[in-house]
Amino acid sequence: MARIFCYIAHKAGVPDDNAFELAAAARKVDPADSPTAILTGWGDDLDAVCDAIRPSYAETWKIANEDLAYPNAELIRKALVKVLPSDSIVLLAHEHFGIDLAPGLSIKTNSAFVSDVLDIAGGEGADLKVVRQEFGGQVSAHVHCDISSGAVITIRPGAFKAVEITPGSSIVDKSVVDKSNAVGSLAAGRRYLETVLAEAGDVDITKHNVLVSIGRGIQEKDNVAIAEELADALGAAVSCSRPVVDAKWMEKSRQVGSSGKTVKPKVYLACGISGSFQHLAGIKGSPFLIAINKNPKAPIFQVADVGIVDDILEFLPELTNKVREMHTVAAK
Amino acid sequence: MEILVCARRVPDTSENEIQLNSAGNDIERDELVYSINEADNYAVEEALQIVARLGGNVTVATVGGEDDEEILRREMAMGANRGVLISDEAFAGSDARGIATILKAFVEKGHYDLILTGVQAEDGGAQVGGMLAALLDYPFASLVNSIEMLDGRKLKISREIEGGNKEMSEIDLPCVLSIQTGINEPRYVGMRGIRQVASVPIPTFSASDLGLGTSAVGEAAAKVKRVDYFVPSLGKGAEILRGTREENIDKVLELVAAKGGLK
Q: Which residue on chain B is closest to A116 by alpha carbon?
């Protein structure tokens, strides 16, 4: 089988968490092969990342180039095309950078492209069988991929268990191969200007023990009050999933997920939330997850601790009344 | 500004419980509610807003069959100047690269300054936009959540990156942008608006119109093929409470208190 490369994204000298998950995915694509890490960047930061990931990979290739100091997908694509052997299998994380780079890379390397892969189901010769999800995770699919002229595969963050590094393991024999000379100067039709940080909101949802989190099932802006009343009664805060922000029913600062906030509550009430992986990626610390959704097939029920199949527009107001009753009894 | 939006008709996951068919090789499609892919609808709205500011035309194109005309009419009712159906039996079974190849051939039949797609389809995975850009050798940006004209040949855009932060870039025209949901508030389309465009002709382009052979598109050219569907089983799954609503409410409050969540 062709050589497997894992593209390691990094920031401020630290590899992204999924760097070690890619190594695990690569070993499942070809258990006989030890994957090669490939990194682009510039200066001390790049060298620091190379050292951090070396123990997990058989070999590490670095492309140091001043034009690559900020990760611009178009420039990195051009650099990789110059360096990668023709039938390489390239793994990247399916996040904002991988989404930017991978499709075009597959065209320029004339290789097959499969995105957002959750598992490797086996392979034989030039046929690789992978697992994807469709329709918001309601169903999975087996996908066959012809890798005879190489492949670009994006891997869903969190889908593979990171390869553990043995503490103190020697990195002396794990070499870093410098491929910088193969690249030269680079130019792109898209140029990075600056990063604008997300605005802080009126409520900091990362500081709450209980979150009443609402999704598309809240149906309209006026219904957000139903969740706010429950949160008030519980001493909780209201958070939400992406569709609620897209519809402008709540501020972006209330959004839980990979493109929103990462929260660590004790209890998470997922109300009318389908449970996309981007949303679940924002819930850390294994809270007790209670899901209420009228669709019994909603993927959230696969990951929740407790599920209730019901309409939140009816369930939540009754729940609020019950909480208020309890407070009244307690006050007497 | 001549803008092309590539759109798709997909089963609406917010309206449907997706089930497998008895053979397990597809989802049960008979009862499904279809609509325009949500992100594609945001892309059309963005195109309409750009044209309202700068002048120009919006073309919405889809690769599909007759059934897909309904989304073209819906987007024309929103204000798109033209809907185009790209349709041929030879396109069946195309993978994302095949679809991008078909769209590239269509793009080269016209003159577009800007090409928009939705960031991803319900059954896709953010593939076609980036592939189309690479085939055309146009610059590309994914997850775009704002667009501003800088001068005649350049845009200032932002991409949605981790934590809700925005990565600002400038990008040369012509380019391909994949549009993230939430970039705007798509206008409402009523039945009346759709009736008004019901008889507007929709031009159709076939494989031969676009000079495409089966070596580049369709099932024979596809390197990536879905072979079956199955229902995922991630972890043990939730304990489903099957009591009355009142019993379920009591249980939820008990659990919230037990997990340290009640004041």
A: B125
String of DSSP letters for A224-253: HHHHHHHHHHHT-EEEE-HHHHHTTSS-GG
Question: Which CATH code is given to the segment(s) A4-182?
Answer: 3.40.50.620
Taking the Cβ of residue B244 and every Cβ of chain A, the question of whether any pair is shorter than 8 Å is answered with: no
Topology (CATH level 3) of domain B2-221: Rossmann fold (3.40.50)
Looking at the domain that runs over A205-331, which CATH code has it been given?
Answer: 3.40.50.1220
Q: Chain B, 8-27: which have a CB under 8 Å from a chain A CB?
A: 11, 13-14, 16-20, 27
A228 Cβ contact list (under 8 Å, min separation 6): A238
ipTM: 0.93
Model pLDDT, residue A277 = 86
A322 contacts on B by Cβ (under 8 Å)? 249-250, 253
Q: Domain segments of chain A: what residues?
A: 4-182, 205-331
How many whole angstroms separate alpha carbon A308 and alpha carbon A306? 7
DSSP class per residue in A128-194: EEEEEEEGGGTEEEEEEEE-TT-EEEEE-TTSSPPPPPPTT---TTS-EEE-GGGT-----SEEEEE
The reply to whether the predicted model has a pTM over 0.95 is: no
Contact list in B for residue A100 (CB cut-off 8 A) is 130, 140-143, 159
B108: closest CA of chain A, how far (Å): 18
User: A110: phi > 0 → left, psi -120 to 50 → alpha, else beta; which?
Assistant: left
What are the phi and psi torsion angles at A254 (to 5°)? -95, -5
Distance from CA of B82 to the nearest CA of A (A): 27
What is the pLDDT at residue B263?
A: 60
**Where along chain B do its domains lie?**
2-221
What DSSP string runs through A95-145?
A: SHHHHHHHHHHHHHTT-EEEEEE-EEEEEETTEEEEEEEEGGGTEEEEEEE
Task: Report the residue from B139, B164, B241 with minimal CB separation from A259.
Answer: B164
Beta partners for A144? A129, B225
- B 126-185 → A contacts, CB under 8 A: 126-131, 133-135, 138-143, 156, 158-172, 175, 181-182, 185
Picking from A7-11, A219-223, B92-96, B214-218, which range would have the lowest pLDDT averaged per residue? B214-218
Contact yes or no for B232 and A137 at CB 8 A: yes
State how far the Cα of B42 lies from the Cα of B79, in Å rounded to an integer. 13
- pLDDT beneath 50, residues of chain A: none
Closest in B126, B134, B162 to A107, CB measured:
B134
Interface test with B, best of A139, A145, A204, A210 (most B CBs within 10 A): A139
Give exposure, B101-127, as e/b (b: 16+ Cβ within 10 Å): bbbbbbbeeeebbbbbbbbbbbbbbbb
